[in-house]
Structures are given as structure tokens and as C-alpha cells.
Amino acid sequence: MSVIWTDFFVLALIPEQRLSTDHRHLSSSANCLRGPSNGDEAMDARLRRAERAPLKERPRWRKVASLQLTLPLAILTIALAATGRAIGADKAAASKHGLEAKFEYCQECHGLLGQGYHGYYPIPRLAGQQTEYFENQLRAFIEHRRTNNIMYHVARVLSPAMMTALARDFRALNPKPLGDAPRKLVATGEQIFQNGVPDDNVAACAACHGPEATGKDQIPRLAGQLYPYVVKALSNWSQERGQNPASPDTSAVMKPVAHSLTKRQIEAVAAYVSYLK
What we know:
Elements lengths: L1 E4 L4 E5 L1 H18 L6 H13 L8 H50 L6 E2 L3 E2 L7 H12 L6 H7 L4 H12 L14 H10 L10 H4 L17 H9 L1 H4 L14 H6 L2 H12 L3
Antiparallel strand pairs: 1-2, 3-4
């Protein structure tokens, strides 16, 4: 076998026994093309005779020329595909880096594991929260269905995809509850949560939030939620939720429930759920 080199790359491997014949064809063709100075007509005649020759006798330089055009195109295609994969990898890395940065920003207030934080204002637990509820509440801050200037500025710069990714990542966390509530209230809180207050027409919390307070879809998880945060939310429901009547959401169902509970009952329920895992 012999290698034929061109201006670009190696184009073909041709058997030795065919190489001498092909070389003679190429030399003969070259001599023909170098005819008399006034040999345009002669050149055309020779080319026409070559076209009329049997296929197996025609010069093989056409095949080589075809390869000369095809191979660079194939290499260019491979190079472009590799470049596309590199760009895709860069975008994925940038997206992952952006998510990590946002997640770390949330951790500064909500805790390293999303367990919440006891500050001057109680900052809620996000760990294990239902993703649909999580995303809906971020949109509620943007749409002023919930009023919180800090969370409004945090949420309004998030893309829908980023909201979904954050909700998914916090949903996957399940740290031990901080459990700082008065334990003497837990038994009463369990009774109210599981069975309601029939005399006051208050439905059981478990009917919507589930017997283990894990929630579902747009119904939030309450298990492990900070005691002071739940007390604050239930005590000030009308000032915290449903602030945009033109855009009602599922929080509306809680308004009559929250208004029907006494301060002591609210504290008992908050104490009970704060210890649930």
C-alpha cells in the first residue's frame, strides 16, 4: 500500500499494483493538457475522448479530487461538534455555579441546612418544604401577595428555572428540628392538630397538612418549623398573607382557621409541629 499526500491531508491508500498505472494515467493526462499553445480545441477533444472511454479506463484523479474536498469538510464537522460540546459544558458549569451562589445566599439567613434561624425576627425553616409551595411563595413576594421587602428583592431577580432548582435542593434537606418550643404545650397542640376544635368549628390541621405535617403540593410542610415563626404567622395572618385580592391563592383557606384559634391554641399547635421530624 502507498500513501497519497495532498495540500491538506492524506487522502487515500492505493494498492501498489494500481499506483503505477494511476501514475501513468495522471502523467498522460498532464501531458495532454500541456498541448500546443493554440491547443484549446485539442484539449477539449482529448477531454471528450476521455469521457467516452470505458469507466474502468478513466483516470482515477477524479476520485482523489473528490476525497480532497470531502475530508476537510468531515474534519471541520468534527471540530464544530467538539466546540459545541465544549460550549454546552461551559454553560452547564456556569448554571451550576449560579445555583450554588444563590443557595449559599439563602443559607446566610435560613441556616446551612435550611433549618431556620432564631434572630430578632424568626426566619423560617426551608428544609423539606414542598417544592410547589416553595415556588408559589417566591412568586407571592414578587406579586405582593405576601409583604416582605427583603424577600421581594431576593425573589424578583430569580428566573423560574432558578426557583425550581432552589426548591428542589431545599426539599432534599432534612436536618433535625431546632425544637425550642415549650414542651408543656405539645400534648394540647397535638390534639388540636389531629382532631381540630369541634366546638369552635375548627377543622383538624392534619386534614390538609397530613398527619405528620409534611404537606402536599401547595400545602406547606409544618413539621420542624420554628415555633416563633408559626406563632407569628397564625397570629398575623391577615397582615402576612393574601395581600393582593386580585390574585388570591391557597392561603385564603387559612384565614378563617387562623382567626378562630385563640392565642393559647396557636402556641400549642406551633409547639407541637416544631418537634415533628
